[in-house]
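chain below, 506 aa
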Amino acid sequence: MKHNEIEAKLKNAVSNAAPDVLENILHACDQKKGTVIEMEQKANTNKGKNKALRVCAAIAAAAAMLVMTVLIGRGSGHTPLYASDVAAIISLDVNPSVELRVDATEKVLAAEAHNADGEAVLAGMELAGTELNVAVNAIVGSMLKLGYIDELANSILISVEGMDGTDAKALESKLVAEVEAVFAQSPVGSGAILSQNVSDADDALSAKAGEYGITVGKAALIEEILQGNARYTFEELAGLSINELNLLAKNVSLTHVNSVGQASDKAYIGTDAAVEAALKHAGVARADATGLEVELDCENGRMVYEVEFDAANAEYEYDVDAETGEIVWYEAPGIVRGETGESGAPKPTAGNEIGKEAAKQAAFRHANVKEADVTALKVELDREDGVLHYDVDFHCGGYEYGYEIDAQTGAVLKQEREQDDDAGGKPAGTPDISGGSLIGISRAKEIALAHAGLSGEKVTELKAELDREDGRQQYEVEFRAGGYEYDYEIDAQTGKILEWDKDFDD
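prediction:
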């Protein structure tokens, strides 16, 4: 790589910081706070000379990187190799997830995005070879610039992996200070920072992180929350942002996670509005409600306010969507645990749906198959586009079937049939190349959504189908969300993400 190319890449990395933040970061460099390029600088009131010194420093740093690359004689592509080994892995999680591998001198060896939003944050940056503090400033600045961190969601998780004892604590504290400095110089003003040392993460936790396409740091935070509230599931928390997890963490005791600042709840309607929505739906005046309790919580990957109160010797319980104020669940006198739409009328849910047995029989009748001939049967209650339905998946006669059955009427909402080449149902004479049963269309959708950091309620045009490519069975999952189109290829047996893409939705 030429000298001017390295200089340009270094400048480009720093320029990705939020415009409102960058100049303050450079000024803080003079004070040795949030250092962008470490150098000794003598006091000088001549602004023109100071600017010249900064330019020279950038050129000198670029030249040093060039000399080091030549001397080592290694490296190619966008991630050069260095003689030093990885001393630590630093992960920065918001919803974008980014990992930095650093050596013992806190030099960045490689930067890697863990999801599509992380790729957006790193776009245009060449951080390999830069100092860790420079990389952190650039990444957090980019998150601010792109709106991943703002007044509505101000939390970030910093995780240190690969270091133990005082060294890990020292680096953790240093990184927290760096991020605090960037926050202070931004329009956000202050943020909520969670930090932890995950060097003792076991194989099970690492496997969990890989399964859901998240960092080990985020997986460790989720496990901490689960220990304090076992009614959550790892799956529903994996799709939440760090700010949402931070808000949930208020209700539990985090043993291994340090916290600075307060997570913002400005994106939500607030407790007063949630109470008013519940009381209005119940037809109860506020003066008549007693024992009122409100708590921000998560239900099925959705942030809600849990509202409970008594009135006229009866108990009322409500789940109110934290963003929209919609009543999504309630239990009131004469009504058994109903989920509602915008109209407030109960939707079919546990207690009034047709049941799994009726759902599978409806699918068998439509497919014209006998239950005795069916293998790999799976029936699950699910919700898509506001409609409660049963997902019925099975193998029969050399085909894989996927059905969506209306949970209230038993009507067939959707059906798919694909040639089944797996060991449990392939046509006679077909070579066995699958090696096991398939995870199913529903599970493939879940894996893709978790990797993208989205819940089913936040996406549209979600579809999946079984396909074969290069002798491998895979699910192709597609959906749209937030102005983007997502495409995933997921191994049909293992659930591993083989390939994924995120493009602007034209």
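The chain has three domains: 3-260, 271-347, 365-504. The first helix runs from residue 3 to 15.
thats it, cya
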